[in-house]
């Protein structure tokens, strides 16, 4: 069949195909509703097939095949798997999983889970045939293609090895006669894992399973609730797209839509032993770290916009880890909690990491800014300071570190570690200055007025010194001692959003004016050293603009890149601004950072946060 259309919305991906006088509309629907933790955690995607005749004739004996290769449930071909077929109240379920079920046995980046089970579920009210069949049955020239039917009885043993000749999960949806009246059938696909994360040596269950709900009960609930969920999600798609378009235009809305599901997909939502929600992000397409602070930081706007409780749930395990003196010995914040899905302690820099292996100013600044942003996201009309109050001693230690090291950072890495170490990094210093004001703000919210005045004075003093130390004519340098350089000062954005007012508007305006002279075909480079850029930071930088024309000067080349990039991969955040080619990263949660522009619209932010508040 020939593809004739496609449409991506926040929760749906829709395709249309034609062939043989029939149109097939194929829809993938994942209810990524960030305000509803129960639905958000439920590991189900719905696949719907809608058929209709487009040539004025009726077409008999039409069927659609859904075929699943068992490699989906293991890390690599050659691993042994087992199969099962079960009935629930509403569905027939075909399942496949690793035979050995070595739960939470490994960690890393370029790995697939090899415990738990993949499920292909067919509602009992859909006319269908479901079978576990040999791969040859669903290949070109196989039984389905030649006869239009699957073998009626399962023809495979209960176990096999993934590879040539293995068993597939297969469902044939029977449409019989297709006319000009649309007919729709659907299946559910899901992956259940029993235990999802190991945190400080304890295995934690997915949030949906926290009260002992079985897989069968979960899938039955998902099937029963599908119509209502689809209506909710479709309303979300329509409303969010309209809101984002009103805020910053169609190009910006389209970018946010592309980022929405990807940003959440790189996270795991689990229940701690005390029933509290914990969220763990994975540093995809890098080193596979879990709970990476400088990945949380760029992704934070997504959660601050829709549901700040999710960001709080990401920060909580980091604070718990650093509160253990025998586990974290440095006076600054950590980089990570381990390697996904094992969050048992930092792995960045190796097990014997020294201070030189860390990102001390980067991560300490990130944590203080995010903690203040969470506190500002009120609960029941009051600042949400509970996490900061519980860990005030540790937070104070990080603020003291930044007061001593933040204005003029030593030779160290930032979140853009691929760019290498930089001494006297001006953008990093901006983060430290913002973070000192964040600490002052937290102190004020907690009634520690003397501390608040002290640190706020330091932050303002540092801001004045920064302007003098970094200015070079009509712009500001990459580093204090680096003449004829420049860099995106994306960390300035929190001075606006959180209302710190440390730096004059004229500084932002002059930087934006300078950046407009450096834009290439597909965007603004990260700094003067290379032609590549970071997608998330570019939107943060564009958000510094005081008018739509300047914002779009940075946004519009990004929109062009989305449509013309030769790299057809899940949305990358690191690409070349001249060629449009992907540099390295893809499928990462940091793209949630593009919601930072929406976060500046208080009325809009309040609207979407209210949805999450209703679910508490």
From TrEMBL:
Domain (Glutaminase A N-terminal) ranges: 11-243
GO biological process, one term: carbohydrate metabolic process
Pfam family name, one: GtaA_6_Hairpin
InterPro entries in the record: 6-hairpin_glycosidase_sf, Glutaminase_GtaA, GtaA_central, GtaA_N
Occurrences of domain Glutaminase A central (ranges): 249-597
Name of this chain's protein: Glutaminase A
